[in-house]
Write a structure and sequence with these properties.
- This protein is 38% helix and 20% strand.
- The protein is an alpha/beta fold and 477 residues long.
- The chain folds into 2 domains: 226 residues, 2-Layer Sandwich (Nucleotidyltransferase, domain 5), CATH 3.30.420; 208 residues, Nucleotidyltransferase, domain 5.
- The strands form 5 sheets. It has a 7-stranded mixed sheet, sandwiched between helices. A 6-stranded mixed sheet has the order 3-2-1-6-12-11, with helices on both faces.
- A hairpin with a 3-residue loop joins strand 1 and strand 2.
- The longest helix is centred in the last third of the chain and has 27 residues.
- The relative contact order is 0.13.
- Bound molecules: beta-L-fructofuranose.
- Beta-L-fructofuranose (LFR) binds next to helix 9.
Amino acid sequence: MSEAMFAAVDLGASSGRVMAGRVGPGTLALEEIRRFPNRPVRVNGTLHWDILGLYGNVLDGLRSAPRGLSSVGIDSWAVDYGLLDAEGRLLGNPVHYRDARTDGVMERVRAELGEDLLYRTSGLQFLPFNTIYQLAAEDLSRAATLLLVPDLLAHWLTGEVGAERTNASTTGLLDVRGGTWSADLIDRLGLPARIFPPLHDPGADIGTLRADVAAEIGHGALRVTAVGSHDTASAVAAVPAATDRFAYISCGTWSLVGVELDAPVLTDESRKANFTNEGGVDGTVRYLRNVMGLWLIQESLRTWGEADLPGLVAAAADVPGLRRLIDPDDPEFLPPGDMPARIAAHCRRRGFPEPSTRAETVRCILDSLALAHRAALRQAARLSGREIDVVHLVGGGSRNDLLCRLTADASGLPVVAGPVEATALGNVLAQARAHGAVGDLAESRALVAATQDLRRYEPSGDEARWAEAAARLGLEG
Ligand code: LFR
């Protein structure tokens, strides 16, 4: 196997990046080519993604990427999509999953189809923004094709149409056992079956750059290779685990907390705990729960007009812990808006003192996230029967020393933090596997472990304090 180079386009809910990754025996190195903010825009009361702005940034990134790339892969956040008309034109700007158009829709669909049928078919947790509920709130009369965000960008780059399976698994419309679109759910919901494109897996060859795109960015006949196009699928593929006795926390805007399984868990208990069975690379199942994540901090910073997160986290480390707590998964925290005010009101309602400084608010968020991590880890182990020796915390949150430490203390498990860019690494590794530059998933993970900066946090042994706080909040997994 010789060294090869790949470009990873990785779009998160708050920022996007184009990275170049070199992969070969003993080598896995990322270089950041371009990083850009992802700013949702509200138009006529609806919250949209600026999809053309994002695509423009992707083109700019690829234009400045080194020559000699073997291929490019694209991943993004899940569930959101663009609709094309019969001529292939985009029907409106994709709507942000935090938009209020789905208010009440999940409840209606659940009542009509039954929770049991939905969960047994798709294995997906009940989140109000899942594609299935967005589609139920959408006029589809002029739609010919639905493309999830990474598939939409791949379509603009190559002209090809398809749906990558890991991301399709987050729609709520994929059959969790067969891995095909659920004709039954589509039919019961009265959705047009024509809009769902053919499915493919990570590693598939999507196509070659359209001639006009190639001319614009100067990369000749560059290929686009399918990766785990759901960012969480790519992140979990790059978890540096050595055995299967691990849990992961993919920590960014969301904290995705769970284990990797061979088969879905579709029990009533699992449904009630709102655990999801999302598709991973190599047919693995990402059995996890969405915990509200760093969104709570990002939205607080936006409200304050404050940029110094490291400074605030350092100050939060000096604030006494477990004094102010929230349930981070309360749906009241989902939409954009004044986060510190919502946190203060929630503390008051729960009988805790309100945070009176920014550092106290940040401490409240981090303690509460650590408690939610603890609960989800315990539930994942219990509901799946998987024993957990270590927790791999990857993504932007792995930079947050205090959060890593609190998560180890709260869960009573060692936490290995890093890599920060797990998603881009997973993206690059899926391409490298398809091009023969690295072996299977285990070999890819060993390469991450051998080459990336990781930090280990041992639990402090005061888990009892956390158990007490979790019980007080009703968060005991
Ligand atoms: C993380 C993520 C989660 C998904 C949420 C919404 O970036 O992809 O996995 O639940 O965003 O799409």
